[in-house]
Write a structure and sequence with these properties.
It is built from five helices and seven strands. The protein is of the alpha+beta class. The chain has a four-stranded antiparallel β-sheet. A three-stranded antiparallel β-sheet has the order 5-6-7. A hairpin with a 5-residue loop joins strand 3 and strand 4. Helix 1 packs antiparallel against helix 2.
Length: 206
Amino acid sequence: MAISAKLLGEDEYVVVSTRTHWKALIFPVFLLLVVAAGGGFLAAIVPQGSLQTPGRIAIGVVGLLVLVVFGAKPFLNWFFSTYTLTNRRLITRHGILTRTGRDIPLMRINDVSYEHGLIDRILGCGTLQIESAGERGQVILPDVPHVEHMHLQMSDLLFGGPEGKPGDGILDDEAPPEHLQRRPRQQQPVDPDAETLFSSDDNDRR
């Protein structure tokens, strides 16, 4: 499920890696139960005779086609859809045969928020909304498991701790964006008398 280490840059590590929420499997599982129960019932009531075996085979083939057409695709979409957060970027991957992906550098993210309705709160998932400085602007990640935890991890990487330090997503050789840069401390004026006293003592020692 985690992204291959070969695709990570130098000094880059995975913070969170997850598939989309398992609620995408509710319909395939429900369909499997219905098809299995319905197919078993129909196979049991097929009258005896020379057509009993072909009839049961036909029922099984139809049930399998229904599962493949309506149940396999949601399952495969769930299996191949991943969200990966590293200390430098957010990586999304989707698609079964044709894979699509997007990498968003953390340095380009301006804001991150989440929302989840009543059902999502019960199931423990939600939608992550990301405002980036790229051409596409807003990025929506639906069905993120433990969305509050993901939001917290991203906030720590982006905005750092309570002391206002840059997050771990900013490497030592990278310049943080302006809104994350520390303001230089103002040097307090030097007391001229202190300089005179220091010079006088220094001369006496000589």
